[in-house]
Write a structure and sequence with these properties.
Layout: E1 13-15, E2 18-20, E3 26-30, E4 37-42, H1 46-65, H2 68-84, H3 86-97, H4 101-108, H5 110-125, E5 129-132, E6 135-141, E7 144-148, H6 154-168, E8 171-175, H7 182-193, E9 201-203, H8 208-217, E10 223-227, H9 230-241, E11 246-250, E12 256-259, H10 265-277, E13 289-293, H11 297-308, H12 329-344, E14 348-351, E15 369-372, H13 379-382, E16 389-395, H14 398-405, E17 414-417, H15 420-427, E18 436-437, E19 455-456, H16 461-466, E20 469-475
Parallel strand pairs: 7-8, 7-10, 8-9, 10-11, 12-13, 12-17, 13-16, 15-16, 17-18
Antiparallel strand pairs: 1-2, 3-4, 5-6, 6-20, 11-19, 14-15
Helix pairs in contact: 2-5, 2-6, 2-7, 3-4, 5-6, 8-9, 10-11
Length: 476
């Protein structure tokens, strides 16, 4: 590994409204495109979590008593502050986790800015109180929230938790991924400039087994909101159970894109490849299973191969790059292992395969891969790969298509392409938290979350705000 370091801010936690340096060891942040160390952050400890929880606890009484309109006004200023630093944030995300710069500019940064603004707008019309018979039902902040997020959309993942928590009146202790932690410092600075009181938002860097587990188990934290792998989510649930705190989990997925016989194949396949490989396939809701009528399998594969030719793999800072590296060398090895497993199980490689990308042997690059004639029960069709790997699975009739789509421990997102009413009817049969019909646009006010081992609870919009509130009944 190249140990040349590029400055990306001083290593520090953010506790009580200011950077807090520690004397612990540090964790290197590595640009996956080059292998260079670009920054370092503290390897936090349970003691650091204790300090952050103490700051959040001290800030809670005044912040929770602040009027929702005033809390929303600060969140709007956070949204504006992020917009002012959008270029810097996009460059940082591309450097720390390898997203192509076009994606950082078009999605990684704009989405959380929009989420912040849209959640702020909810405050005015939200039912903070309601009358039910002789009861006054009051929605109150839950308390101190522990937020733990992954590296694939570093700013978006925290904003889906921070925005509703702030409007709800909660205070936050946040652990970003140690792989992509740099955006957290920018966000903390923006919240301070927006007028957020000291201690309402705190950041503790570190690893999941140390800092993440300390947050999940901490008796001073009233709720844990976790986004990440199903394996890690199970661990969070176990640790949180000792204090019976609320747990909201947004976990893995193995989403099916069901292409019906009356679909526009060109549209369905083109969007299907795009939504499977976006962000190098590092998206929990990626459509990684393409279900197609057996009679049209070869035609679909031909269209998919043609679409794949447009996906240039390369330097993520190059505007022409469609797919950058995956987030780390360790993750590259993991994704490559799945590709090798698919071949061993008998699936046919139509595009890609194992091995390095020509001319990019030194970065954490994976060859975008399309498997065809995949068995629905194969490992590559059942386990979340989290890389640019698409499985094309044939089905004989519509009932089998639904059966295959629901044949998963996950249930996060999905898609159906076909005649509008036909596709909508099939979408209703899928056991998954979200379904896009014919490539419908994402709605940032609609609830996002999954069934089964994709988690529980919902993020985004009114449903996301309700996750961060307690409900009290006063009879009179």
């Amino acid at each position: 590994m190249d140990t040349t370091t590029t400055a990306h801010g001083a290593p520090a936690h953010w506790i009580g409204g200011r950077p807090v340096a520690t004397h612990t060891a540090t964790i290197d942040v590595v640009d996956p495109a080059t292998g260079k160390v670009i920054a370092s952050v503290p390897a936090g400890t349970p003691t650091d979590v204790d300090r952050a929880v103490a700051a959040a606890t001290a800030a809670f009484p005044a912040w929770s008593a602040t009027a929702p309109a005033a809390r929303a006004a600060i969140l709007r200023r956070v949204s504006e502050g992020l917009r002012d630093r959008a270029g810097e944030i996009a460059d940082t995300i591309t450097a720390e986790m390898g997203a192509p710069i076009w994606l950082s500019r078009s999605a990684q940064v704009p989405f959380p800015i929009t989420v912040a603004a849209s959640v702020a707008e909810l405050a005015a019309d939200f039912a903070w109180t309601e009358e039910i018979g002789n009861s006054l039902v009051i929605r109150e902040p839950i308390g101190v929230v522990g937020a733990i997020t992954p590296w694939n959309f570093p700013l978006q993942q925290i904003m889906t938790k921070l925005a509703p928590a702030l409007v709800a009146g909660d205070t936050i202790v946040f652990k970003p991924s140690e792989i992509a932690p740099l955006t957290a410092r920018i966000l903390a600075e923006v919240t301070a400039e927006a007028g957020l009181p000291d201690g309402v938002f705190n950041v503790v860097h570190g690893t999941g087994p140390v800092v993440g587990e300390a947050i999940a188990a901490h008796p001073g934290i009233d709720m844990v909101s976790f986004t990440g792998s199903t394996r890690a989510g199970r661990r969070v649930s176990v640790l949180a159970s000792d204090t019976v705190k609320r747990v909201a989990l947004e976990l893995g997925g193995k989403s099916a894109n069901v292409i019906l016989g009356d679909a526009d194949l060109s549209q369905a396949v083109g969007l299907g490849v795009a939504r499977s490989w976006i962000n190098s396939g590092q998206v929990c809701g990626a459509w990684t299973r393409m279900l197609v009528p057996a009679s049209k399998h070869d035609e679909v594969v031909e269209l998919a191969v043609a679409a794949a030719a447009e996906y240039t793999v390369g330097d993520p800072t190059d505007e022409a790059t469609r797919i950058g590296p995956v987030a780390s060398e360790a993750h590259r090895r993991r994704v490559t292992g799945y590709i090798e497993r698919g071949i061993a199980e008998g699936a046919t490689v139509a595009v890609g395969g194992p091995g390095s990308v020509e001319g990019l042997e030194n970065g954490a690059y994976v060859r975008p891969t399309i498997f065809t004639n995949v068995d629905p029960d194969a490992v590559i069709a059942q386990e979340e790969i989290f890389g640019p790997v698409l499985s094309v699975i044939p089905y004989t009739d519509e009932d089998q298509a639904v059966e295959i789509a629901n044949n998963s421990v996950y249930g996060l997102t999905g898609a159906v392409f076909g005649e509008r009413e036909h596709a909508f009817a099939v979408a209703r049969r899928l056991r998954t938290g979200q379904v896009d019909v014919n490539g419908a646009e994402m709605n940032l006010l609609a609830p996002f979350g999954g069934y089964r081992q994709s988690g529980n609870g919902r993020e985004m919009g009114r449903f996301g705000l309700e996750e961060f509130l307690e409900v009290k009944s006063i009879q009179r």
